[in-house]
UniProtKB/TrEMBL annotation:
Species of the source: Jatrophihabitans lederbergiae
Biological pathway: Cofactor biosynthesis; pyridoxal 5'-phosphate biosynthesis
Descriptive protein name: Pyridoxal 5'-phosphate synthase subunit PdxT
SUPFAM superfamilies cross-referenced by the UniProt entry: Class I glutamine amidotransferase-like
Binding site for L-glutamine: 51-53, 112, 141-142
GO molecular function, one term: glutaminase activity
Summary of subunit composition and partner proteins: In the presence of PdxS, forms a dodecamer of heterodimers. Only shows activity in the heterodimer.
Chain's gene name: pdxT
Classification via PANTHER family: PYRIDOXAL 5'-PHOSPHATE SYNTHASE SUBUNIT SNO, PYRIDOXAL 5'-PHOSPHATE SYNTHASE SUBUNIT SNO1-RELATED
Amino acid sequence: MTAARPRIGVLALQGDVREHLTALRSVGADAIPVRRESELADLDGLVIPGGESTTIVKLAQHFDLLEPLRKRISDGLPTYGSCAGMILLADRIVGGAVDQETFGGIDMTVRRNAFGRQIESFEEPVNVEGVAGGPVTAVFIRAPWVEDVGGGAEVLARVTSGPAAGRVVGIRQGHLLATSFHPELTGDARVHGYFVDMVRNVLGKSAEVPTTKSEDSAVTARTGR
C-alpha cells in the first residue's frame, strides 16, 4: 500500500469497529477489519478500539492473535488505541482484573475505569498536541487515565477542568498513540488524521532507506550501468 493511502486495520473483536473504519476512510486510509493473524501481515497501521479490555484479550487469545499482535506492535507497527485500546497498549495497569494481560508497548501506568461507571460518562473539549483546529470533543465512557508516564512517552492531552483536571488522557511513544476518549464517536476525524499521518511518516521513512554499496554493485552487475 502507498504512503498516500495506507492500509490500516481495526481490531474487530469487540468495540467501536465500524466507527473507527469510517473515520479512517474519511482521512484517506484503506481501512479493514482484522480478526485473523493472516490479516496482520499486510497492515501499515492498526487501531485497537474501545470496548472491554479483559474481553478483548480473551478473544485475542481465542483467535490466536495475542502473541502475533504483541510481536507486530513491538516490531514497530504504528498502533492507535482508544479507551480500552489505551489500557491494552499500557505496560502497567492498576485497578484491572487479577493477572490482566495487555499487548503493551507504551511506558505508562493506566488506571482502568478511572472516570467511573457508565452513567458517569461525559464529554469535554480537550486540546491534543499536534492536532490543529482547536480542542477536540472528547467522549469519556468508563474511561481510563494515565497515572504514571515513563521517560520514553510524551503527553499529548490532559483534562482541563473538574475533579480530574490535569489527568493525562492522550499519550504517544514513538509509533504508538493512545487516548482515554473516543474520537470515533463525534464525527471529528482529526485524531484519526493525526494517526494516519504517523503511519504515512513511517512509510515515507521506509521508502527513503538508501541502498548499500553492495546493493549498488549488484544493480551495476545486472544492468551494466
